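Tokens for chain A. Residues wanted.
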């Protein structure tokens, strides 16, 4: 198909059929699953998805690609033209579920544009109650951060927030040659499933504030990053070493701080 890949929209189109098959196999689709694909592009995932589903919603920002998709008149496909960062996943979940929307129904899939991978994941935190699972291709480095353990180089704010809300399962790595044009970096597919004990909205807000402060300056100790919010004694009371750095704390330690801190404006 004649389309020049647009860098600003992170367009790296999947070419490798075996990767597409592996991604779809990992999803274990049922025909009536409510699925939304982010960034269908030229349809590498869209067409095989539609073969396995009664209906599919897609969100695409590039009008030229929308036109190409529309021209195909694909049965069961609903096309949303716009920026997925401004997209209302809650409304879509209700729409796809019909008259009786249920929690944890929406299945999200996509080969995500690199430039919005991380912000989109952060956005999904807020609508995790509508989500059943997420299967997305991301830069491998981002997937490494998603499931990093405390004390490792990749562990950071994204790890804490995502691991609090989702069970994170890295599935497989994908080399640059699987795409056209080939990106400069390795990619990886990851599965996210909302945890049954995911924090409620208020606590998630507190955790977001707490991690923003804790990781504000990665080289600083917790005592310095929390200056003006929590003093050394308060950290010690929470059994947290004020001289430690944020990347060494486990999730429970962040929960203790977030509870103490509440929803401060960080
Ligand atoms: N799914 C196709 C594939 O695997 O070949 C295309 C993947 S390509 C990496 C990313 C797709 O997301 C492109 O089609 C791009 O136009 C679209 N996209 C980029 N930014 C977007 C945004 N903010 N909202 C919706 N779609 C976006």
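Reply:
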């Amino acid at each position: 198909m004649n389309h020049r890949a647009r860098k600003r929209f992170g367009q790296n189109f999947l070419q490798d059929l075996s990767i597409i098959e592996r991604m779809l196999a990992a999803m274990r689709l049922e025909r009536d699953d409510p699925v939304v694909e982010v960034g269908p592009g030229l349809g590498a995932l869209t067409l095989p998805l539609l073969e396995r589903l009664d209906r599919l919603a897609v969100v695409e920002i590039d009008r030229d690609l929308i036109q190409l998709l529309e021209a195909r008149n694909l049965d069961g496909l609903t096309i949303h033209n716009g920026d997925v960062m401004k997209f209302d996943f809650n409304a879509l979940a209700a729409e796809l579920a019909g008259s009786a929307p249920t929690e944890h129904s929406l299945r999200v899939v996509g080969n995500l544009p690199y430039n919005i991978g991380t912000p989109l994941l952060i956005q999904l935190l807020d609508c995790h109650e509508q989500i059943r699972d997420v299967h997305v291709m991301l830069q491998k480095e981002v997937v490494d951060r998603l499931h990093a353990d405390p004390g490792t180089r990749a562990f950071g704010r994204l790890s804490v927030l995502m691991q609090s809300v989702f069970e994170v399962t890295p599935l497989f790595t994908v080399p640059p040659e699987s795409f056209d044009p080939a990106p400069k970096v390795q990619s990886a597919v990851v599965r996210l499933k909302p945890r049954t004990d995911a924090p409620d909205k208020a606590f998630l807000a507190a955790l977001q504030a707490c991690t923003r402060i804790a990781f504000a300056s990665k080289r600083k100790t917790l005592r310095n990053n929390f200056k003006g919010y929590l003093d050394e004694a308060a950290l010690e009371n929470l059994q947290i070493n004020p001289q430690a750095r944020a990347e060494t704390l486990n999730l429970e330690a962040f929960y203790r701080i977030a509870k103490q801190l509440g929803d401060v404006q960080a």
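Residues 9-14, 39-42, 44-45, 59-62, 65, 83-85, 111, 113, 116 surround S-adenosylmethionine (CB under 6 Å). The CA atoms of residues 166 and 194 lie 4 Å apart.
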